[in-house]
Amino acid sequence: MLSHSPFILSFLLLLSLPLLFVLVPRILPPKTLPSIPDPDEIDDLALFRRATLASAGGGASSAAGLRRRPASPPKIAFLFLTNSDLSFAPLWEKFFAGHGRLMNVYVHADPAAHLHLPLTPSFRERFIPAKATQRASPTLISAARRLLAAALLDDPANAFFALISQHCIPLHSFRFVYHALLADPGTSSLSSAGRLRRRHRSFIEILANTSLLWDRYNARGEDVMLPEVPFDRFRVGSQFFILARRHAVLVVRDRRLWKKFRMPCLQSMKDSCYPEEHYFPTLLDMQDPDGCTRYTLTRVNWTDSVGGHPHTYHPPEVSGDLIRELRKSNSTYSYLFARKFSPDCLDPLLDIADAVIFRD
User: Fold this and answer.
1) Where are the alpha helices (DSSP H) in 130-212?
2) Are 107 and 83 in contact, with CB atoms under 8 Å apart?
3) Which residues form a coiled coil (predicted)?
C-alpha cells in the first residue's frame, strides 16, 4: 500500500490543479499597475485647492495679486508635458516671438528623465514642480492637472490652456492660433444680473462609440467605476486638448471622478489602460457637454500606429505639402498643432518655418 502512495499523491495533485486555477484568483488580489504615491497625491490636493480658491477670487493673497496686475488681454497658456528633451523649443520660440503679452509657457518635465532643459527665453524658468510620470497610469492625468493648476495660479488672464506634447509642433503662426480661439462663437448664458454672457468653448475630443470601449471601461476591474461613472457616461478622446478657463478650474476642483480614475489598472488590462484619454473627456462631458466642441485641434496620424503610439514623422517626410495636409480637418477649424515628430525634424522644420508654417 505504501509503495503506491506516491502515485496516489501525484494523481490527487493533478486533479487539484484545475481547482487551484479557479480558487487562487479569487483568494489573491489581482496584480495592478503602479499607483500614485500618497505623498504626491497630498501635495497635489493642496496645489489644486489653492488654484481653485484663487480662481474663485478667494484668499487675501490671490485678491491682492489680482489688484496688482494691470488690465491684460486674454492669454493662451501653453502647457508642455514632457519626459524627454524639448527638442522643438527653437521652433516654438519662433512661434512665440513678439507675442509675450498674449501667452505664457509652463513645463512639466519628468524629474527622472535627466533632461537637457532649453534656455530659450520663453522656456527659461517656466518649469513647474513636477512628479514622475508613467505610461498606462493616472500619473499622466496628475501631470496635466498640475500644469493647469500652476497656470491658473500664475496669471488670471490665462483664458485658454493648451496641453502640448514634446513631440508636437505648431501648424500656423501665433496670430492665427490666437484669433482662431478668440473668434470662436462659444456658448451664451445669462448672468445673475440678467446680462447675456459669452463663454469660451473647450476644444477636446469626446467620443462615445469606439472599439474596445468596454475593455477600457473595465481596465480597473468590472463595476469598479460605479456608481460615479456608469458605462453609458464613459468617454474617450485625445490626450491633448485646449480648455477654456472655467473647464480648467473644473478639472483641478474635481474630487468625485478622480477617486475612480486614480485607481491603478489591472496588470492583465495594461493594453486597455489609457487614463489620460478617458478622464478629461468623461469629466467634461458629464459636467458641461454643450461647452465642448467634442473635437481636438491637434492632428495625429494613426494609420500605422505601433504599441499605442501614432505615426512618427521623420526628416524625409517634412515638407510644405505635409504642413498644408496636416492643417486640413473635418471641422470648421483648421488643425492648429500636430504630432508626432522625431527630434531630428527640427532643422527641416526651421527651414520651412517662415515660408510655410508661419505664413497662413
Assistant:
1) 139-154, 174-183
2) no
3) none
Burial letters 82-116, b for 16+ CB under 10 A, else e: bbebbbbbbbbebbbeebeebbbbbbbbbeeeebe
Q: How many residues does the chain have?
A: 360
Biggest CA pair distance of the chain = 97
**61: pLDDT strictly greater than 50:** no
Mapped onto helix, strand or coil, the DSSP state of residue 259 is helix
Confidence label for 160 from pLDDT (cuts 50, 70 and 90): very high
CA atoms within 13 A on the CB side of 229: 28
CA dist., res. 68 & res. 75, Å (int):
17
What is the Cα–Cα distance from 225 to 230, expressed in whole angstroms? Answer: 7
Sequence letter at residue 308: G
Q: Are 221 and 29 in contact (CB under 8 A)?
A: no
Q: Which residues contact 179 (CB under 8 A, 6 or more apart)?
A: none
What are the residues facing 105 on neighbouring strands? Answer: 78
Q: Which of 76, 36, 46 has its CA nearest to residue 241?
A: 76
In one letter, which amino acid is 284? L
Residue from 49, 58, 121, 136 nearest 89 by CA:
121
Q: Rounded distance, CA 84 to CA 189, Å? A: 42
C-alpha cell at 161: 490652456
Strand-by-strand arrangement of the 75-82 sheet: 103-109, 75-82, 158-165, 242-244, 202-205, 292-294
Top-ranked range on mean pLDDT: pick from 15-29, 180-194, 343-357: 343-357
* Number of other residues whose CB lies within 10 A of the CB of residue 262: 19
Look at 6-15, 158-167, 336-345, 346-355 and tell me which has the smallest mean pLDDT: 6-15
H or E element: which one contains 10? helix 5-27
Residue 254 has pLDDT above 60, yes or no: yes
Q: What is the CA radius of gyration of the chain?
A: 24
With bands split at pLDDT 50, 70 and 90, how would you rate the model's confidence at 58?
Answer: very low
- Looking up cell 473647464 gives 247
Put simply, whether the predicted model's pTM sits higher than 0.85 gets the answer: yes
CA atoms of 166 and 107, how far apart (whole Å): 10
